[in-house]
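#struct-queue
[09:14] JT: dropping the first one here, sequence first, then the structure tokens:
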Amino acid sequence: MIILASASPRRRELLTQIGCKFKVITSHADELSAEGLSPGELVVKNAHLKAAAVAAEHGEYPVLGADTVVSLDGHIYGKPQDEEHARDMLTRFSGRTHQVTTGVVFAWKNNFWQAWETTEVVFSPLSADQIDEYIATGEPVDKAGAYAIQGRAAVFIDGIRGSYSNVVGLPLHCLDGLARKAGIDLYDNGEGSSS
């Protein structure tokens, strides 16, 4: 059993997909802004803050924190503030390759294990009408980069290089390796070994 310190339904779905036993306790930690940090540094620091906040109250199980951002040309994009912000992001991504980076952190027994992964996503050129139609669905609202690869935006994707699950919000291969390093068994209802 682990605790997922995230309200993201996508992360819940991914953990369920691999048969992980978990419960959700949302972290209310204040996240850092991107100022002066690389995407990898930012997502690991924010995932650490989320995991640490929940672990301080619920230390009996390993706590998983995660954070995802999108980057292009050195600029980091989180969730859009409004429709115009979403439109701006999608217009910038149109016909370009951007990066999606997710940080994952386990907090357990006063220790932290962390990793991050980056996937390149190639967007096809999008018309203004395509962008407006997509925004009208409401799907971009709570998504890093203003799109959901597992949703309607799948038709925008010309290709990816790297982990698909990372773009959804949780790099499963990376997560499994980190759990093994920490002695946490994701698959057997275990609470991890004592090592």
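[09:21] JT: and here's the second one, same format:
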Amino acid sequence: MKYKWSIGLILVLLCSSGYAQDFQGKAMYQSKTQVNMDFGNRKIPEDRKKEMLERMKKANEKTYELNFNQTESIYKEEEQLEQPGGRDGG
């Protein structure tokens, strides 16, 4: 009976050591920003203020990607395409 356990344990160790050599991965990071602006006593409509705050928030939010393996890692910012109707309002 102990003989079967020994063979089983050896097989498990041999199989798992084959997978242990493949160390790689990918991680995604997102930066979030909370924007609080003081518009002072300016007479700006509330919907316009909200739109301005939302644009500033989106401009500061970024997504990063980390790819790594046993010997190297690459950390980069993902490029984001501007949405149609973004800056020019049309």
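[09:30] RK: nice, looked through the second one.
[09:31] RK: Residues 22-77 form one domain.
[09:31] JT: good to know. Strands lie at 25-31, 62-68, 73-77.
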